[in-house]
Every structure is written in structure tokens, then in C-alpha cells.
Amino acid sequence: MNSEILLAELQFKAVRSSGAGGQNVNKVASKAVLTWDVQASQAVGAQEKIQIMEKLAARISNEGVLQISSEADRSQLKNRTNAEKKLLRLVAQALEVPKPRKATNIPFSVKMERLAAKKSKSEIKQNRRKPNF
């Protein structure tokens, strides 16, 4: 993944933000909406595109466009940089290859301890019962 090319491919749109800001909210478009066309991207290879499409399927539209918005700050520039950071973090997580799980066996001593604990608990409960004459 080439992050410089990826950042050059991004398209931004400023939208009116909800939330705090008073009268300023009604006048200024401070929310940044970032769109990235995953299908047409030159920043990632074909195999990486497949991986991104699979991992981020819930966030990607049918046209293959990933949309991220940020409205945490009152500044449009800060929201834009936040959206870029979000995108880079998401793509990096999607491209991360998980470590293969190594199957382990439960040690024999642990199994015996568990059975001994079960037995002692059972005996305690047996001793609580009324005697059966």
C-alpha cells in the first residue's frame, strides 16, 4: 500500500455538522466526508483490494466506494485530517495478516486438578444431604 498515492486519490466534501457549535453550526460546513474508490485505486495491488473489500465489506458501497466522515472538531481542516487518519488506520487493519492460531493441549496435571476440584465439590454437596437410612 502506498499511502501518498492513496491520499492523492481521496475526494472530500464539506457538509454541515451536527452537534455543538451554537449558531456557527447553521452557517459553516465543518463536517468532512471522505470518499475513496477502492476498485479504481492505484495505491493498492489486486490482492490487497480483494482483502480490503472482504474485511471492510460493511463500510463499502455496492459501487466499491469507501466513505468515512468526521465531525469531531469545529474545524473543517481538523476533521479532514481526522478522516484521513481513520482511513489509513482502517486500511492498515484490513491488510494486516492475522497470526495463525497454534493449537495447544491441556496439560494432564491441569485436567487432574479440575477433576479433583469437581470431586471435592461433589463430596461437600453429598455431605449436605439428609442421611438415607
Word description of this protein:
It is a single chain. With 133 residues, this protein is of the alpha+beta class. The mean pLDDT is 88. It is 47% helix and 14% strand. The chain has helices at residues 3-9, 24-27, 46-55, 76-95, 108-128; strands spanning 11-15, 31-37, 65-70. The protein is built from 5 helices and 3 strands, in the order αβαβαβαα. Strands 1-2-3 form a 3-stranded antiparallel β-sheet.
The total of helices stands at 5
Biggest β-sheet description: 3 strands, antiparallel
The mean pLDDT is 88
Computed Rg: 28 Å
**Strand portion:** 5-15%
Instruction: Give the fraction of residues assigned to helices.
Output: 40-55%
| SSE order | HEHEHEHH
Give a count of the beta strands, DSSP E runs of length 2 or more.
3
Summarize the structure.
By secondary structure, the chain is of the alpha+beta class. The chain contains five helices and three strands, in the order H-E-H-E-H-E-H-H.
